[in-house]
Amino acid sequence: MIDAQFDSDILIDALNGIEAARGEIRRAGRKSISRVSWTEVMSAADAQSLKAVEAFLGCFQVEEIGDAVARRAAALRAERKGLTLADAFVLATAQISGRILVTRNIKVFPASMPGIRIPYTL
Q1: Long-range pairs for 88-95 at CB < 8 Å and ≥24 separation?
Q2: What integer is the mean pLDDT of 6-10?
Q3: Could you tell me which residues are beta bridge partners of residue 4?
Q4: What is the pLDDT of residues 54-76, one digit of tens each?
Q5: End-to-end C-alpha distance for the chain, whole angstroms
Q6: Predicted local confidence at residue 67, as pLDDT
Q7: CATH assignment of 4-117?
Q8: What is the pLDDT of residues 12-69, one digit of tens each?
Q9: Residue 101, exposed/middle/buried by CB under 10 A (0-12, 13-18, 19+)?
Q10: Vertex 41: Cα angle to 11 and 23 (nearest 5)
Q11: Given a cut of 90, is residue 2 above it in pLDDT?
Q12: Interhelix angle for 8-15 vs 50-57, to 10°?
């Protein structure tokens, strides 16, 4: 079991019934999400599913954006000029908390990048 931080694409896949995403979440040890991913998923929920989505996200430890994460995100953006602020915060949160980032976003987070897990593609 790995300690994992899940990106919003994996969370949305799980909510949409993608078994590969659900299995990946089940296999993880300590499960976390960044506040950015929490916000992305909550903002995509419609009024009818909002409570269910919030309950699902409640199963994860939400990592907040503090000073250490903000500093790491700034350094990541300086290193990778095309990195969006949201993606920098997501990656920095995983790195600062010592977790593997589980994502499908291979354009931003290639599988060869240390600390990244791409469990499946669609």
Answers
A1: 89/34, 89/35, 89/36, 89/65, 90/5, 90/7, 90/8, 90/34, 90/36, 90/37, 91/115, 93/5, 93/34, 93/35, 93/36, 93/63, 93/65, 93/69, 94/5, 94/34
A2: 99
A3: 31, 100
A4: 999 999 999 999 999 999 999 99
A5: 24
A6: 98
A7: 3.40.50.1010
A8: 999 999 999 999 999 999 999 999 999 999 999 999 999 999 999 999 999 999 999 9
A9: buried
A10: 10
A11: no
A12: 120
Residue with tokens 């909002």: 50
Query: How crowded is residue 111: how many other Cβ atoms within 10 Å of its Cβ?
Result: 11
Cα separation of 100 and 91, whole Å?
9
* Other C-beta atoms lying within 10 Å of the C-beta of residue 119: 17
What are the tokens at 76?
A: 């990541």
- What's the CA gap between 38 and 53, in Å, rounded? 10
Tokens 């929490």 identify what position? 38
Amino acid found at 91: L
